[in-house]
């Protein structure tokens, strides 16, 4: 059984027991979060699609940690102009452990 959820403007395929890093969500480490934007659920009976979401479906997850991804280097260079620009970016994330999928 798996589900496709939407959070932080991105879509993730999750199953019970999976660990997934998503965009920062409010909540303390160890607390439970209920994700209600479930786009699809695949179980023994078949695939159930939402339009755009499945009403009444949710995914329960536990917050494992919060952190920052590796640094992404940004480098811009203009040839023959003696112009260079360098920057970096680290995106925040929340790591979740999927506990339950309810359709």
TrEMBL record:
InterPro entries tied to this protein: bL21-like (IPR028909), bL21-like_sf (IPR036164), Ribosomal_bL21 (IPR001787), Ribosomal_bL21_CS (IPR018258)
GO CC term, one of those recorded: ribonucleoprotein complex
Superkingdom of origin organism: Bacteria
HAMAP family per record: Ribosomal_bL21
Family: Belongs to the bacterial ribosomal protein bL21 family.
PANTHER family, per the entry: 50S RIBOSOMAL PROTEIN L21, LARGE RIBOSOMAL SUBUNIT PROTEIN BL21M
Name recorded for this polypeptide: Large ribosomal subunit protein bL21
Biological source species: Parasutterella excrementihominis YIT 11859
Classification of source organism: Bacteria, Pseudomonadati, Pseudomonadota, Betaproteobacteria, Burkholderiales
Gene: rplU
């Amino acid at each position: 059984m798996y589900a496709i959820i939407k959070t932080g403007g991105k879509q993730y395929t999750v199953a019970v027991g999976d660990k997934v890093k998503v965009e920062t969500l409010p909540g303390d480490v160890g607390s439970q979060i209920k994700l209600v934007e479930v786009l699809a659920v695949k179980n023994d009976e078949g695939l159930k699609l939402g339009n755009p979401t499945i009403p009444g479906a949710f995914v329960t997850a536990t917050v494992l940690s919060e952190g920052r991804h590796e640094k992404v280097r940004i480098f811009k260079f203009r040839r023959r102009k003696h112009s260079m620009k360098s920057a970096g970016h680290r995106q925040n994330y929340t790591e979740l452990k999927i506990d339950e999928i309810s359709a």
